[in-house]
# Entry
Amino acid sequence: GDSVTQMEGPVTLSEEAFLTINCTYTATGYPSLFWYVQYPGEGLQLLLKATKADDKGSNKGFEATYRKETTSFHLEKGSVQVSDSAVYFCALSRGTGGFKTIFGAGTRLFVKA
Amino acid sequence: DAMVIQNPRYQVTQFGKPVTLSCSQTLNHNVMYWYQQKSSQAPKLLFHYYDKDFNNEADTPDNFQSRRPNTSFCFLDIRSPGLGDAAMYLCATSHGQGLMNTEAFFGQGTRLTVV
# Structure
């Protein structure tokens, strides 16, 4: 079945450091890929998405590129801020298979000033 | 403007006493989901509706039921809550058609405490 694997956390960085959170997926067909962010006590918010191979999603300085050849969708940001501290979830969804959105385990990011 | 609204934000219920969580949406999306999320874990899909078609996950306990009376509303019923059911419950919606499904839009969640 479909699955998403992302790097374990927590990840602790200093402000202005470079961030990479790895994500790989297993799915038949051509899923859409997403990164969601969750702040404490809140629901999940969409951070960015890509719907086909080689698409690059970007938002708020975060980027991720849909790499079909490596089945990956790694999240990157050039300079993190304290306000980026949150839990980040990689996810996939596709129409066939029942329109389910499948999440990775989540990676907690701490950014210290 | 809130698009997926969950009520209440916090719910305390007694062990074994039935409880209902509600979710409404203004997006007119045809897919609605209920997820259970325990501390520091990924959201776990309990079930979802594609229009009126109910899709239960194989490992969702019978204790969890759902109703979707119309496009806008969806309810999660926990028939006999146990201490292990204490969690954040997340409602989400998306628009699914053919081979494509949009991103999921989440409500703020209902945190359920069982005493």
Summary: The CA atoms of residues 34 and 91 of chain B lie 5 Å apart. Chain B touches chain A through 30 residues (CB under 8 Å). Chain B has no helices and 13 strands. Chain B has a mean pLDDT of 92.
